[in-house]
Amino acid sequence: MRVVIAEDLALLRDGLIRLLSAYEFEVVEAVDNGPSLKRALVEHRPDVAVVDVRLPPTFTDEGLRAALDARREIPGLPVLVLSQHVEQLYSRELLSDSSGGIGYLLKDRVSDVKQFVEAVRRVADGGTALDPDVVSQLLTRRSREEPLKALTPREREVLELMAEGRSNAAIAAKMFVTEKAVTKHTANIFAKLGLPVSEDDNRRVLAVLAYLHA
Amino acid sequence: MNGEAHDHARESGLAVARSLLQALLAQVANLPLAILLLVSLAFVPLGVGLALLPPVLFALRGLANQQRRWAAEWSGVEIVVPYRPRPEGASGIGVVKWLLRDPATWRDILWTAVNAVTGLVLAGLPAALVVYGLEGVLVAPWMPKVHTFGWGPFWPLSDYGLAGSAGSALLGSLMLLVGWQLGPSIMRAYAIVNRSMLGPTRGRLEERVRKLTETRTETVDASAAELRRIERDLHDGAQARIVAVSMTIGLAEQLVKDDPEAAARLMAEARQASGTALTELRDLVRGIHPPVLAERGLEGGVRALALTLPLPVDVAVDVPGRAAAPVESAAYFAVAEMLANAAKHAEAARAWVDVRHNGSALVMIVGDDGRGGADPTAGSGMRGIERRLAAFDGTLAVTSPEGGPTVVTMELPCALSSPKT
Q1: How far is B406 from chain A (nearest CA, A)?
Q2: How far apart are the first and last CA of chain A?
Q3: pLDDT at B370 over 50
Q4: Is there a smaller number of Cβ atoms within 10 Å at the N or the C end of chain A?
């Protein structure tokens, strides 16, 4: 799988290259600023891009803007955005075109190598990887409202993992239950929230996220 | 050239008209006002004066403000309005107190008395010269033909002869010339005399210095306390955790050969502890300067903030450009505190934020539909925000009747830089 990396701190950039290379990703280019990122994405059209939000020259949200720009040019280009802090404002912007292939994680998550690599793969496959911090913020904000209040604790847990972008199989493994049990929970959740049920994991996640961001 | 001469004539003509107006005004406005004031002050011991004073003083302020405007418009002499701001909710005796304690009031009173004379003698001079000069030229030479006794405009009529008439015309045209030419300068001199009484005094400057010293001390104290808090948080939090992490890693290093399983357990533990340290650092950074504020400015910051609250918040931001970083930060934390209050204490179902720039200040209005009864003096949060805003000459006003709604209006004087493209 071909990856483009954008990270301005050399230490972290080298770490990411080493880590992804060890898991058989091919790092086609690693850049350290916004304009080069935009160019590299359009030039290489990688299978996935791993992008830091804050990049030179402005040190604001250069990386995020470059990634969103590139996605407008190459629809569905998979992008995993990393940041020192997560904001619902940004997750909203990233997911606004609802075409999937989006990741938004805290930089800390890189330290859990297995999970991080899995998230990169998921995003490359058109899936979603949303940081647990963002998901819990989304749920806290809406928890007073009616349909969410009606969920059982178990269903809430499934919803949370689903919002992070995990497949039914992954949720089952994480919760130590059968996949069938998860499917049942999912059906209940979708019924309570009034969402159309879909067999496709990715589309189901996007529906849940659209619901939570509304 | 012709245009310049025309302008000059226009200026002179205006000066004469204004001179006439000022001389009249000094007699029909200043003089009665001065007398009314004396009467009101004399009746203060009887109580009637207390009711009489405010309207008379406000009329006086109106007149004085009109003079300040004229000084600027007619003669280019800027006179800053020196009055102290009216205290919030002052009424009745409070208004009288506020008026009488303001030194500018007493200087207004002095002015109205003095102006009864200066308005006539100094401001009236151009008009007097022109009118008297015209009389000398046009009327005096013909007087002897009508009268044979009494006083002419310049000397006793009995002395008139041909020389008297010619002299009268000459002297008259001289006065006319002086009045016409020097009119604008005399009016300017009058404006400067007025400024000496109607402008701010040294006392006002002193008060400004006292206020600045006070807010500066508070700001310095607050930022010192803030630094101390950050130091303590780092020392007891992230720093201590990172020490523990490196100890755990050192231990794992020792064990890796003899007991790889235990070493792996320790490494996992170290990773978890480093994650906690990072979370603490992140929270600390958010409290110092929220990253989203640095990345997206006030609008993005407030919108991101609104999304994190457990109640729906309507956000309207109209700020064309960016304020200086310290101002932006003060504005952000002010809005954040008010929204947090709405979410925590007000039992509100909705809140709204409106941030706009009115040309000279950021105006931030935060409202909620909660139960009201917020007391700005009770909570330390609101007082802290008030102090923080005061460092920029900003203000905070709260209306929160029992039963709601609560509306907090904050103003933060600042200029904006042009928006980034």
Answers
A1: 22
A2: 34
A3: yes
A4: C
Residues, chain A, total? 214
Averaged pLDDT, B181-203: 85
- Do the chains contact at B310 and A61, CB–CB below 8 Å? no
For residues B113 and B34, the answer to whether their CB atoms sit within 8 Å is: yes
Contact B367, B387 (CB under 8 A): no
The answer to whether the CB of B391 falls within 8 A of the CB of B356 is: no
Q: Are A100 and A202 in contact, with CB atoms under 8 Å apart?
A: yes
Please state whether beta strands B361-368 and B351-357 pair in parallel, antiparallel, or not at all (unpaired).
Answer: antiparallel
The nearest CA of chain A is from the CA of B275 a distance in Å of 6
Contact B308, B340 (CB under 8 A): no
Name the CA radius of gyration of chain A, rounded: 17
Task: For CA atoms B163, B164, B169, B174, give the dihedral sign.
Answer: positive
Name all domains of chain B by residue range, CATH numbers in brackets.
2-198 (no CATH), 204-288 (1.20.5), 295-413 (3.30.565.10)
Cα A32 to Cα A8, A56, A214, B250, distances in angstroms: 4, 7, 34, 33
Question: What is A135-213's CATH number?
Answer: 1.10.10.10
For residues B351-367, average pLDDT: 93
Cβ-defined contact of B282 to A84 (cutoff 8 Å): yes
Nearest residue, CB atoms, A111 vs list B274, B282, B294: B274
Structure tokens at B189: 């001199």
Checking if the pLDDT of B421 tops 50, the result is no
Nearest 5°: the CA angle A109, A111, A115 is: 60
Pairwise CB contact (< 8 Å): A60 & B309:
no
CB-CB under 8 Å, B285 with A84: yes
Tens-digit pLDDT profile for residues A98-139: 788 999 999 999 989 999 999 999 999 999 999 999 999 888
Where do the domains of chain A lie? 2-130, 135-213
Question: Which superfamily is assigned to A2-130 in CATH?
Answer: Response regulator (3.40.50.2300)
- The two tokens of residue B206 are 């002193």
Closest CA to B63 of B26, B17, B106: B26
Identify which of B181, B256, B205, B223 has the alpha carbon closest to the alpha carbon of residue B80.
B205
Q: Which residue has the tokens 């406000």?
A: B58
Alpha-carbon span B370 to B342, nearest angstrom = 7
Phi and psi based region of residue B393 (left: phi greater than 0; alpha: psi -120 to 50; beta: remaining):
left
- The CA distance from B172 to B357, in Å, is 59
Query: What's chain B's length in residues?
Result: 421
Question: How far, in Å, CA of B196 to CA of A125, rounded?
Answer: 80
